[in-house]
Request: fold
Amino acid sequence: MATNVYFQNGDTSGTTGEQRLVESLVIESLKIYGHDIFYIPRTIVNRDSIFDEDAISQYTQSYPLEMYLENVDGFEGEGELFAKFGLEIRDQATFILSKKRWEQMVDTSDGTFQLEARPAEGDLLYFAKTGSLFEIKMVEFQNPFYQLGKIYVYKLITELFEYSSEKIDTGIAALDAIEDQNSLNTLEYEILTEDGNVLVTERNNTIIREEFATQSTNANTDNADFQSFTDILDFSEGNPFGDL
Reply:
């Protein structure tokens, strides 16, 4: 049974002019009510074919785009939690991005992307207003579902990014500092001579600066977080279980 040919519906709903009007209104709304977000695509360096992941991914590109934060009350998720291995922040956010604006700013550039057709899972979003870096976990591109027969936006479902060993060199100072603050690459802590050569011992081992031990400790502990609770909790020898 065919649909009524005298009314616009199904795949034929909406003329080109109507679709362009809706798309322009969507873009204008995002520019009015949205936030300035940096879209940072992920570059795969050496994909593990077994686990389908890349532990040494690179983030060397950034594109400013306007996006709408779906939950206007703030971030979603479970928030701050005390877990087994310390304090965990599980903020989540859903951003809405114009499909046309992504094509104009990102897809037509000379960059390298995981997917050419849309944003990909694993790419990052930098929310400068709060200084938060989010990782895209899912891209919903059929919601709303074909208004006037066309898709106008991407809905990016994200979680707060946890730095591992990725290379971050986007040209954004606040963002690139993340790698410097958390890097455990021993090559960055080698002692060099005046000629720029690596200083080695008699056994041909490189000499690492003392800062590496401090950096390694800070990157894997939550000492600063626990010190902030010193006015509330007492972990002295006389009271090992805190204030009771």
Q: What stands out?
A: The mean pLDDT is 75. The longest strand covers residues 86-98.
